[in-house]
């Protein structure tokens, strides 16, 4: 079995440069360092949802993703681990982030190690990760790591939390993700045709 | 290859005029469209079945029974018949009746339906869609092939000593297609019975259609009905044509941009690239549709959606004329030249071919059950059947 692992970053930041992307990159770097320390080759692929914003809406209206978005979906479902980071808008994940999750195949993230991150203006929003993002991924049967990372504006100045500062939270979350990714290798999405029941099974189950 | 049209029977406002047909106008337009398709020489007219506005096609066999009387050559079909929410006993009766009335000039396509509330309205659960399709169709086949049926299943009242009448024409049931977009289980079902499989790919990229058809073909061979390339395949499609492609795009874009199914989404150009939608000249349609054989292998039926999105009746009739006059003759030549072998069926089986095959295999069932004197009238119902002309029942 190959020891190479692919981490896929989903970043829903809208501005460029984006603090959401900055947090996503820190998280993926921490997980990659830990995986490399364990002897794994690591590649990181990043999906910037801003690039796919129109295609996401089109997919919701037509029922299928096309072009670059279809390729991004394929990349996501073949990942060994996912880092999903969104800005918090009006108390929860951004609409674009949720729309993207809505068009992902509901089975695609089952068992997938996922690290959650979010950015916001003040630390008073930090629990949004726990009451909105975590249940969303639990519903999809993802394997969400215990530590999710919220970065408020002040965190980037190192003033947000002097007891448990952002870099330490990032390291801990990255290590948790790396442990899960190291222990599991994604063989890609199940082939719907290979797993189709035979007709005698269908008749028996009818 | 057969070429025809299928309708979803939507009542949609014409965005260029603001005109919305009422239900009566729309039903009558469908009748006109079907008769025109017959006169123009298309091979198939298929109606959808829906039980919710804005669709009007709730009673397919009533519509097709009338059309059997007023058309001459066109094969009448469905796209699709709801095998999940209809009682299979009623389907057996209604479609055997249609088969008799049309003198075998019909077939039908099973589908599950995709409108959530229709299931509970008819006493069913959408989560049981596949098991319903499997059980109901198994019963439907028995009702057509066995004279007296004892049956018990999960979804319907048991039957003891039930005979569905009229018995199928010449003792041979209608040919059946199964339509599915995403479910390998339905392709498996079609393959198991050696029935036809139609992938209605109008909203899907060809890469997906190719996979589904390939799976059906492999399983058709697995179940011993012939080689994979001999399986009976159909595809959907949608086109809008004018002599020049610029005119076609200019005229169709206002309809596309606000159409209930894809409006306000991808551009006409993006959607055309990803799906079989082709808006342009007849030659563009010939080029595009002539290439699908490369993707799915030689197939036997190509259906086009032409009467949707609020297009006026006159325009739809013009589309049928362009299809029948300019596209089909040329397209037929191109695709039939690509048929891989002479023993790959050119078309789906006709009733006459199915009767000949059933006779050769000794599988012709009774055309009447209970050949005894009627205890009440003393007469025998079964008399030699005079040759009937299609439409005779309507005094035509």
Instruction: Identify the overall geometry of chain B.
Output: globular
Given as residue ranges, the uncertain stretches of chain A (5+ residues, pLDDT < 50) are none
Please tell me what the overall shape of chain A is: globular
Q: Can you tell me the CATH architecture of chain B?
A: Alpha-Beta Barrel
Can you tell me the residue ranges of chain B where pLDDT is under 50 for at least 5 consecutive residues?
A: 378-382
Tell me about the largest β-sheet of chain A: 7 strands, mixed
> What's the level 1 CATH class of chain B?
Alpha Beta
- What's the helical proportion of residues of chain A? 40-55%
Approximately what portion of the residues of chain A adopt beta-strand conformation? 15-25%
The CATH homologous superfamily of chain A corresponds to: Flavodoxin domain
Note the topology.
The complex is a heterodimer of chains A (206) and B (396).
Chain A: E1 5-11, H1 19-37, E2 42-48, H2 53-62, H3 67-77, E3 81-89, E4 92-93, H4 95-103, E5 113-120, H5 128-139, E6 143-144, E7 149-152, H6 166-183, H7 199-205
Parallel strand pairs in A: 1-2, 1-3, 3-5, 5-6, 5-7
Antiparallel strand pairs in A: 3-4
Helix pairs in contact in A: 1-6, 2-4
Chain B: E1 2-7, H1 23-40, E2 44-47, H2 60-70, E3 75-78, E4 81-82, H3 88-101, E5 108-111, H4 118-121, H5 129-145, E6 149-151, E7 159-162, E8 176-179, H6 184-193, E9 196-199, H7 206-222, E10 233-235, E11 239-241, H8 245-258, H9 268-274, E12 278-280, H10 282-289, H11 292-296, E13 301-304, H12 313-336, H13 351-360
Parallel strand pairs in B: 1-2, 1-13, 2-3, 4-5, 5-8, 8-9, 9-10, 10-13, 11-12
Antiparallel strand pairs in B: 6-7
Helix pairs in contact in B: 1-12, 2-3, 3-5, 6-7, 10-12
Describe this structure in words.
The complex is a heterodimer of chains A (206) and B (396). With 206 residues, chain A is α/β, with parallel strands linked by helices. Chain A has one domain: Flavodoxin domain (Rossmann fold). Chain A contains seven helices and seven strands; from the N terminus they run E-H-E-H-H-E-E-H-E-H-E-E-H-H. In chain A, strands 1, 2, 3, 4, 5, 6 and 7 form a seven-stranded mixed β-sheet that branches. In chain A, helix 1 packs across helix 6. Chain A starts with a strand and ends with a helix. The mean pLDDT of chain A is 93. Chain B is an alpha/beta fold. Chain B has a single domain, classed as TIM Barrel, CATH 3.20.20. Helices cover 40% and strands 12% of the residues of chain B. Chain B contains 13 helices and 13 strands. In chain B, strands 3-2-1-13-10-9-8-5-4 form a nine-stranded parallel β-sheet, covered by helices on one side. In chain B, strands 6-7 form a two-stranded antiparallel sheet. In chain B, helix 2 packs parallel to helix 3. Chain B is globular. Chains A and B meet through helix 2 and helix 7 of A and helix 5, helix 6, helix 7 and helix 9 of B.
């Amino acid at each position: 079995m190959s020891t190479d692992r692919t981490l896929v970053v989903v970043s829903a930041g809208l501005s460029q440069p984006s603090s959401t992307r900055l947090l996503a990159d820190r998280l993926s770097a921490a997980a990659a360092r830990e995986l490399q320390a364990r002897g794994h080759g690591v590649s990181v692929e990043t999906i910037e949802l801003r690039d796919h914003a129109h295609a996401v809406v089109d997919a919701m209206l037509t029922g299928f993703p096309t072009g670059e978005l279809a390729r991004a979906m394929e990349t996501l479902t073949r990942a060994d681990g996912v880092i999903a980071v969104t800005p918090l808008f009006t108390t929860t994940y951004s609409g674009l982030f949720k729309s993207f999750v809505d068009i992902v195949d509901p089975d695609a993230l089952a068992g997938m190690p996922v690290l959650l991150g979010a950015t916001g203006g003040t630390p008073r929003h930090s629990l949004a990760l726990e009451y909105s993002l975590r249940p969303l991924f639990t519903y999809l049967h993802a394997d969400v790591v215990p530590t999710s990372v919220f970065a408020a504006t002040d965190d980037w100045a190192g003033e947000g939390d002097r007891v448990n500062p952002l870099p330490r939270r990032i390291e801990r979350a990255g290590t948790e993700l790396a442990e899960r990714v190291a222990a599991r290798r994604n063989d890609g999405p199940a082939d719907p045709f290979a797993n189709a029941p035979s007709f005698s099974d269908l008749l028996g189950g009818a | 290859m057969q070429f025809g049209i299928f309708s979803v029977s939507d009542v949609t406002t014409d965005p260029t005029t603001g005109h919305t047909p009422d239900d009566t106008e729309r039903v009558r337009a469908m009748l006109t469209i079907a008769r025109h398709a017959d006169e123009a020489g298309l091979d198939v007219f298929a109606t959808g079945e829906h039980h919710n506005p804005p669709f009007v096609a709730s009673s397919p066999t009533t519509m097709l029974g009338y059309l059997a009387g007023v058309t001459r050559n066109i094969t009448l079909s469905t796209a699709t018949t709801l095998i999940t929410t209809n009682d299979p006993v009623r389907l057996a009766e209604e479609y055997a009746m249609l088969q008799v009335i049309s003198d075998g000039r019909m077939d039908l396509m099973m589908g599950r339906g995709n409108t959530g509330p229709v299931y509970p309205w008819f006493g069913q659960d959408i989560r049981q869609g596949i098991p319903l399709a499997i059980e109901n169709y198994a019963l439907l086949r028995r009702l057509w092939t066995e004279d007296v049926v004892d049956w018990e299943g999960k979804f319907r009242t048991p039957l003891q000593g039930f005979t569905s009448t009229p018995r199928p024409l010449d003792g041979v049931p209608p040919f059946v297609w199964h339509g599915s977009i995403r479910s390998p289980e339905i392709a498996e079902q079609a393959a198991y019975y050696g029935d036809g499989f139609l992938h209605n790919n109008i909203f899907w990229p060809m890469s997906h259609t190719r996979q589904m058809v390939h799976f059906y073909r492999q399983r058709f061979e697995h179940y011993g009905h012939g080689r994979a390339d001999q399986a009976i395949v159909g595809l959907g499609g949608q086109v809008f044509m004018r002599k020049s492609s610029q005119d076609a795009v200019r005229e169709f874009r206002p309809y596309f941009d606000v159409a209930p199914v894809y409006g306000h989404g991808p551009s006409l150009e993006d959607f055309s690239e990803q799906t079989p939608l082709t808006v342009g000249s007849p030659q563009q349609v010939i080029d595009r549709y002539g290439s699908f054989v490369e993707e799915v292998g030689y197939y036997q039926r190509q259906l086009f959606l032409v009467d949707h999105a609020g297009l006026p009746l006159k325009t739809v009739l013009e589309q049928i004329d362009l299809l029948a006059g300019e596209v089909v003759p040329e397209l037929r030549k191109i695709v039939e030249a690509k048929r891989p072998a002479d023993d790959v069926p050119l078309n789906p089986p006709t009733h006459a071919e199915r009767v000949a095959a059933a006779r050769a295999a000794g599988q012709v069932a009774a055309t009447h059950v209970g050949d005894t004197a009627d205890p009440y009238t003393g007469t025998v119902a079964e008399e030699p059947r005079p040759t009937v002309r299609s439409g005779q029942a309507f005094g035509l």
